[in-house]
């Protein structure tokens, strides 16, 4: 009798142990650095030398990519459709501008301050998106973004109102690297921030935390039943995404030395959704690929039809949805096997 | 004071006519259609073109705007929208934002970016005094027309066969289909009707709300507020929400112009937190 029960405990022990090691293996496999990731960063660095005249648009891409990575945490992992992510972007942009204007010209401090303030806003507003359906969330996020835009517009004494906030100079990065005319240091600065944020987001997304977010996205109720504290996780990821979005806004301010009220506009949030949809959601690099494609496309369209590029962007959106964005996002699977195993082992 | 109330009511009535089509799309088909304002803009531009280029009377333009926009709505529903009823909400949002962008650029291309003006018939312009209250004639006209429409809508929904089919499809699509109701036809007709109402609202609102290519973007939030605050299961919910919004907006712009829009958005968010399924939702909602 005793022997049997010992046997049983031994068995459960060993099966628990194998399950644990299986889980560990699974997490490790998910976490492995993939080949295409290295290519992306090499290409980004090589661009400094290959295309020194295109650094301004590359900077734009890097900022948009950072912004998109931040939304991907919310949309691709936690599954929250947000139409107001520009609220954090714009807040970060204004904070960075105000810091440079009134306190300290050094950009890294401004960047951190912008991230923190946006994060606080994200934390406070995250409680509003815990309840309700997709529509309610959509409305709430949109409403917050519109409120921010209205505040920025009305508090002209602080933000410059419709004229935007200007007249400040951003000091050298860390006191040594001056922003130059060709945007070289600006690009490197943005790229470094993008790299760091992507690595942090990556670490987070492929951890058990990221898996639990995907569980919440799949079915919040079931996620709750298997012991995932859905509400707390959503608050955490939403606040973090707000920090990153604020940093993206700060980068825009610092590289252009100007904040226009446009940073809070609705189309910025809508464009961002499009960026993510082009690149594919839920694996972080979608934001980067999407930002590259979207910026180049927009740049090309605004040269071809300066006034009506919006029409073509809209047409592309409609066409994309009708063909099925899942099919589009699967392009990465057509690459040779070695590059493409983005989420092998299910 | 009473004048403001009156203007607010006219504004709210107009908002209701504009938004009630969206109530149907959202409530009935569970489709997040951000492009609803595009139909309203279409109605507005149809009126402008007919009146200013061809000199057709304003009274004929209103039904024409309704019919043409309804036709546009029907065509779009059959060709594009119906593929997306089962799609995820993200897809629907992206799709309708795409439609909005296209309509904004198209309106800019064909009509130019400037504000469009229409010349109202003389008997509708100007103000008059009733019991010491200054009343814009056109606003009175708006209120009368919209009130008639509201009553008509309510009657159609509650008394006619089509109305009962529609309500059956709202309550349970599958059972309604099982009973032999052609749900897809009902949807198409309702969508067209809702678009037509938006077009009519756009035509009538060209004077009060203004009309330029950014119309769908500017008023998208207002329509969404009406629908999400009013709930989607009744006509009276969105109607009351539209009246509240109209009066609050006009009063806010008059008394506290600096923070008027801010108050509206804040109110909406508070409302959504307290009652996520709408202020006048029936039961717990599904």
What layout of secondary structure does this protein have?
The complex is a heterodimer of chains A (346) and B (286).
Chain A: H1 2-31, H2 35-50, H3 55-77, H4 86-103, H5 107-126, H6 134-154, H7 156-159, H8 184-205, H9 208-218, H10 220-225, H11 230-256, H12 266-279, H13 285-304, H14 309-323, H15 325-329, H16 337-340
Chain B: H1 2-29, H2 36-54, H3 58-79, H4 89-111, E1 127-130, E2 133-136, H5 137-159, H6 161-171, H7 173-178, H8 183-208, H9 215-230, H10 236-255, H11 260-274
Antiparallel strand pairs in B: 1-2
Number of helices of chain B: 11
Structural class of chain B: mainly alpha
Based on CA inertia axes, which overall geometry of chain A fits?
globular
Strand content of chain A: under 5%
Q: Helix- and strand-based class of chain A?
A: mainly alpha
Please summarize the sheet with the most strands of chain A.
none
Which consecutive residue ranges of chain B, at least 5 long each, have pLDDT under 50? 282-286
Radius of gyration of chain B, rounded?
Answer: 19 Å
Overview of this protein structure:
By secondary structure, chain A is an all-alpha fold. Chain A has a domain at 31-265. Helix content of chain A is 74%, strand content 0%. Chain A has helices at residues 2-31, 35-50, 55-77, 86-103, 107-126, 134-154, 156-159, 184-205, 208-218, 220-225, 230-256, 266-279, 285-304, 309-323, 325-329, 337-340. Chain A is globular and about 65 Å long. The two termini of chain A are 40 Å apart. In chain B, 73% of the residues lie in helices and 3% in strands. Chain B has one domain. In chain B, a hairpin with a 2-residue loop joins β1 and β2 (133-136). The model of chain B is unreliable at 282-286 (pLDDT under 50). Chain B is mostly helical and 286 residues long. Chain B is built from 11 helices and 2 strands, in the order ααααββααααααα. Chain A binds chain B through residues 75, 81, 83, 128, 131-136, 138-140, 142-144, 146-147, 150-151, 154, 266-267, 270, 273-274, 277, 307-318, 320-322, 325, and chain B through 26, 32, 80, 83-84, 87, 89-91, 93-95, 97-106, 108-109, 217, 221, 224-225, 228, 258-259, 261-262, 265-266, 268-269, 272-273, 276-277.
């Amino acid at each position: 009798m005793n022997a049997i029960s010992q046997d049983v405990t031994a068995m459960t022990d060993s099966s628990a142990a194998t399950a644990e090691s299986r889980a560990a293996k699974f997490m490790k496999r998910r976490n492995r650095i993939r080949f295409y990731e290295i290519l992306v960063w090499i290409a980004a660095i090589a661009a400094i030398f290959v295309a020194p005249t295109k650094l301004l648009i590359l900077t734009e891409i890097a900022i948009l990519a950072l912004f998109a990575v931040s939304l991907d945490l919310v949309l691709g992992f936690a599954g929250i459709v947000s139409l107001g992510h520009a609220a954090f972007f714009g807040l970060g942009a204004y904070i960075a501008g105000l810091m440079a204007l009134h306190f300290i010209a050094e950009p890294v401090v401004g960047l951190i301050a912008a991230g923190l303030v946006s994060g606080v806003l994200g934390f406070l507003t995250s409680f509003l998106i815990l309840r309700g359906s997709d529509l309610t969330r959509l409305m709430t996020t949109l409403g917050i973004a519109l409120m921010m835009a209205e505040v920025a517009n009305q508090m002209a004494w602080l933000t410059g109102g419709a004229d935007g906030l200007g007249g400040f100079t951003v000091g050298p990065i860390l006191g040594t690297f001056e922003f130059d005319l060709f945007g070289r240091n600006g690009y490197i600065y943005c790229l470094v921030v993008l790299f760091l944020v992507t690595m942090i987001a990556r670490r987070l997304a492929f951890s058990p935390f990221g898996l639990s977010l995907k569980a919440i996205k799949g079915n919040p109720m079931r996620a709750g039943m298997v012991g995932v504290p859905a509400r707390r996780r959503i608050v955490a990821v939403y606040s973090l995404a707000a920090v990153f979005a604020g940093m993206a806004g700060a980068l825009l301010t610092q590289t252009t030395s100007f904040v226009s009220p446009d940073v809070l506009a609705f189309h910025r949030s809508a464009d961002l959704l499009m960026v993510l949809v082009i690149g594919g959601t839920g694996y972080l690099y979608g934001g980067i690929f999407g930002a590259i494609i979207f910026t180049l496309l927009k740049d090309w369209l605004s040269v071809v039809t300066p006034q009506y590029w919006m029409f073509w962007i809209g047409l592309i959106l409609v066409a994309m949805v009708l063909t099925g964005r899942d099919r589009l996002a699967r392009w990465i699977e057509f690459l040779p096997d070695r590059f493409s195993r983005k989420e092998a082992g299910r | 004071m009473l004048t403001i109330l009156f203007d607010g009511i006219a504004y709210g009535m107009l908002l209701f006519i504009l938004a009630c089509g969206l109530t149907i799309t959202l409530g009935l088909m569970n489709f997040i259609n951000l492009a609803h304002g595009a139909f309203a803009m279409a109605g507005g531009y149809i009126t402008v073109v007919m009146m200013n280029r061809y000199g057709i009377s304003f009274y004929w333009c209103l039904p024409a705007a309704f019919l043409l926009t309804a036709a546009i709505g029907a065509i779009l529903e059959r060709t594009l929208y119906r593929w997306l009823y089962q799609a995820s909400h993200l897809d629907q949002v992206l799709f309708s934002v795409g439609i909005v962008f296209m309509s904004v650029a198209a309106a800019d291309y064909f009509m130019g970016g400037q504000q469009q003006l229409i010349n109202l018939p003389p008997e509708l312009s100007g103000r008059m005094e009733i019991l010491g209250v200054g009343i814009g004639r056109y606003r009175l006209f708006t209120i009368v027309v919209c009130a008639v429409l509201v009553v008509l809508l309510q009657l159609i929904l509650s008394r006619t066969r089509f109305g009962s089919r529609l309500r059956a499809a709202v309550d349970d699509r599958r059972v309604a289909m099982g009973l032999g109701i052609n749900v897809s036809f009902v949807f198409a007709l309702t969508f067209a009707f809702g678009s037509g109402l938006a077009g009519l609202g756009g035509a009538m609102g060209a004077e009060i709300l203004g009309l330029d290519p950014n119309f769908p973007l500017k008023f998208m939030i207002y329509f969404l507020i009406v629908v999400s605050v009013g709930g989607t299961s009744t006509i009276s919910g969105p109607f009351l929400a539209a009246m509240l919004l109209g009066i609050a907006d006009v009063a806010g712009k008059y008394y506290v112009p600096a923070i008027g829009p801010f108050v509206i958005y804040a109110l909406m968010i508070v409302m959504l937190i307290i009652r996520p399924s709408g202020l006048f939702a029936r039961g717990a909602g599904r």
